[in-house]
Amino acid sequence: MPLQVPLRVGCIGLGIGKVHLQCYSTREDVRIAAVCDINEALACEVASTYGAAAYTSAHKMLSSERLDAVSICTPPKTHAELVEACAEAKVHVLCEKPMASNLKDCRRMIEAAEGAGIILMVAHKKRFHPFYSFLKRMCDGEWGQILWASVRFALGRVEKGWFWDEDDGGGPVLENAVHVFDLLRWLMGEAKLVFGFGGNLFAKHRAPQIDSAAVCIQFSSGGIAALAIGYASEWAVAREQVAFATPFVVVDADGPFDNVSQFRASTRDDEPKPIDLSFITVGALDDFANEIEHFIRCVLTGVKPLVDGYEGMRSVKLALAAKHAIRTGQVVDMERFECD
User: Fold this and answer.
1) pTM over cut 0.90
2) What is the spatial distance between Cα 286 and Cα 68, in angstroms, rounded to a whole number?
3) pLDDT by residue (tens digit) across 3-41?
4) Domains in the chain and their CATH numbers?
5) CB 44 within 8 A of CB 28
6) Which residue, 315, 310, 77, 71, is CA-closest to 173?
7) Which of 54, 109, 113, 226 is least enclosed, having the fewest CB within 10 Å?
């Protein structure tokens, strides 16, 4: 049966979930019907902003409301159970990254979604950032395949217990750097070999969790990437800096952490020429808004999401492989890596 517009949308978890709601609220094809958070005062406050119903129990929200779609914006440890509950209620899901803290839960989520016939999209918003979207189009075309990449993605301190819990957020190399692992998989193809150094260098009260790392990846294409990731900066100076090279161009970008905004490129001719990228403009929430737009379009049309459950699971696996390489001192072969 075709869905009726406006879609009735809910949100579970009102941390980053508030950004999802802000993007939903600008759309004429969506009505924010319900919000949920274990903090009752927060749930009521946000609900009043959007004229929505407030809940402290996701299961109660799903059983009480007629919803078409939900954003799950809770810690990763809760994702599998919540996706299963949404699947039972026949509600489409946009699930924040990382998809889960282990591959077993990722598979649970995929199986639940496929069994219920619902859309399951993982919120890897970098694929929807204007610069990275442009880079993907060009490197799939005239610029050629990316064969070298350098990424600095070092965040400031985060003092949330679930973020550091091995069975939940998994620390910065999973919870945060999965952004980069997913982005590089999308731009450069599947990883073949992974190696890295790192450890508990700065957040001693979070030992033995890996807080910072330097990771190298060789891709099946033969391309290579070097990543500087983890809690190795502070918010006052944290930046996102990336550089890419193909046989025909070099391109790099810089900007505030998690939002590159300055772009440069050059041809690799005998007489290299600068490439004008001034037309790429970036708003504060463009990646979120584009991600939400894609999700809603998938829900309305049944089109497979750009980041479905399998894509989300592969990015989790790459992050877990990097952690394994750091802890064992071994090069990880992705085809043989088992982490359940």
Assistant:
1) yes
2) 24
3) 888 999 999 999 999 999 999 999 999 999 999 999 999
4) 7-125+288-307 (3.40.50.720), 127-281+317-333 (3.30.360.10)
5) no
6) 315
7) 226
